[in-house]
Structures are given as C-alpha cells and as structure tokens.
Design brief:
- This protein is of the alpha/beta class and 273 residues long.
- The chain folds into 2 domains: 136 residues, D-Maltodextrin-Binding Protein, domain 2, CATH 3.40.190; 126 residues, D-Maltodextrin-Binding Protein, domain 2.
- Helices cover 35% and strands 22% of the residues.
- It is built from 10 helices and 11 strands.
- Strands 1, 2, 3, 4, 6, 7, 8, 9 and 11 form a 9-stranded mixed beta sheet that branches. The protein has a two-stranded parallel sheet with strand order 5-10.
- The longest helix has 15 residues.
C-alpha cells in the first residue's frame, strides 16, 4: 500500500514540479493560430529559461505534414485533419491528438471607404463564384469587385470553401495570397477589394462586414450567431507526458493567463475562469 501511495505521489510531483534542462519545441502550421502560438511561446520562454520554442506559419496543411514527418512537435491548424492526413499519420505510427485551444470567426472585410455595411451568406458566395461582379449589385458604388482569397493550403480557405461556398469553386479571376496579414494588406490598399480574415486580424485599416445581419466579434463567434465561426486547434503526436514542457505548453489555453492572451489577440477562449 505504501509503495502504491509513493507511486501516486511521484506522478503528482512530476505533473507540478518545474521541468529541468533545456528543450526545444517546434511549432508549424496555421497563420490564424500563429498569433496564439507566438504569444504562448514568448510567455512560456520567459517563464522557463532554457526552453527554446520556434513558431512557423506555413499553413494548416503544411503543419499536418510537419507533424507527420517529425519536423515539429505541435501542428497549429484552423481546421481538423483530413482523412488522408490521419491515414498518413497512422502509417507513420503517429496518433494525432487534437486540442481545441480557441474559437474564431472568419470576417469578410472590405476597404474602409466602402459604404456597404453587410452581406448575406448567399451574396458572399455569389461574389466569390463570380456571379456578382460589381459593388452596385449589393448596394455599393459602381466599382468592380476584386476578390481576394487565402491560398488553397490554408485551413481558413478550406473553412470558407466549406461554410460559404459549399464546395463550389472560386471564380478564376480570384487573387490568392499566403496569409491573413496579406489579405488585410491587399484589401486596405484596394478600394474595390473583398477578402476574409480571422477576427483577430480585424483592425481600423479594413472594414469588417455583417454577415446575415451579425457583426463578427469574439462574442458572436462564441455564441454561434455569427455564421462563419470555427474552432482553432493545436495537434500533438500522442498526448504529451505529464510534467514535460510540451505538456505544460499545450495546456496553457486552459490557464487564466492563457485565456487572457487569447482574449487580447482577439480570439475566444474555450473556457473562462
């Protein structure tokens, strides 16, 4: 009995005792989840000298590939892994464990000078399919619409394609860019442009539109009233061992400090202490 109690106590100590020694954690994937990963990394490295955390933003698809080929410990993703990605992971003897770290809304954004206040989901779809070509068709000025999209390797693109386009293909004249920041930059410099970004990327350089009469905010994404909302993920190989730096890092989103950081960035925590 004493031996059993000692084993339990040792396990608890491993879970709460500071981890000693240097360690490197590599994170790769979604540009949407990137700001959360970077904020967590900066905070964790300050609290744990000797731990080196690097964050890359090559897209959700590349994050999954990096996890499967062993070049990262955490894949950040703005969508769930696909069936073929799971199969590739299992083939490589990897069990992906998905952690929902926050919620997000995909905001439809235009140039600040655009007088249009909002669109319906059907209007957004028709614009991206090339059926609506001029802003005057939706109550705006007589200006051609320039559609901007994320690249097809992006989880944000795939969420938009699924939720808004329902699997139909974007018009051939669409411009594709590699990040949320790139879409924001293109829209803020182009009066006729329309794009879509995570709500954490909304600022005063672009104008976010209501969709179906609901403005994209953390609150409307969390309560489900905003129609283009989604979870954000960090994916690990198996569940990290108790007491390791990887375990503590991946669970930051459950702490009060982690929730504060997620709120400050503009996303929605999954819990609220």
């Amino acid at each position: 009995m004493k031996t059993f109690i000692m084993i339990i106590c040792m396990a608890l100590m491993l879970a709460v005792t500071p981890v000693m020694g240097a360690e490197k954690i590599v994170i790769d994937g979604s540009t949407t989840v990137g700001p959360i990963a970077k904020a967590f990394a900066e905070y964790y490295m300050k609290s744990n000298p000797g731990v080196n955390i690097t964050v890359s933003e090559s897209g959700s698809g590349n994050g999954a590939k990096s996890l499967i080929n062993g070049s990262c410990q955490i894949a950040t993703m703005s969508r769930l892994m696909k069936q073929n990605e799971y199969e590739a992971a299992v083939h490589s003897e990897i069990l992906p464990v998905t952690h929902v770290v926050a919620f997000d809304g995909i905001a439809v954004v235009v140039h600040p000078s655009n007088p249009v206040k909002g669109l319906t989901m059907q209007q957004v779809k028709s614009i991206y399919l090339g059926k609506i070509k001029n802003w005057k068709e939706v109550g705006g000025p007589s200006t051609p619409i320039i559609i901007i999209s994320r690249d097809t390797n992006s989880g944000t693109y795939e969420t938009f394609e699924t939720r808004v386009l329902k699997g139909e293909k974007i018009a051939k004249n669409c411009e594709y860019v590699g990040s949320n920041g790139a879409i924001r930059g293109r829209v803020q410099s182009t009066q006729g442009a329309i794009g879509y970004v995570g709500i954490g990327f909304i600022d005063n350089t672009v104008k976010a539109l209501e969709v179906n009469g609901v403005y994209p905010t953390p609150a409307t994404a969390k309560n489900g009233s905003y129609p283009i909302a989604r979870p954000l993920y960090m994916v690990t190989k198996d569940y990290p061992a108790l007491g390791t730096h990887l375990f503590r890092f991946i669970n930051l989103y459950l702490t009060k400090k982690g929730q504060e950081m997620i709120n400050e960035i503009g996303f929605v925590p999954v819990t609220d202490y």
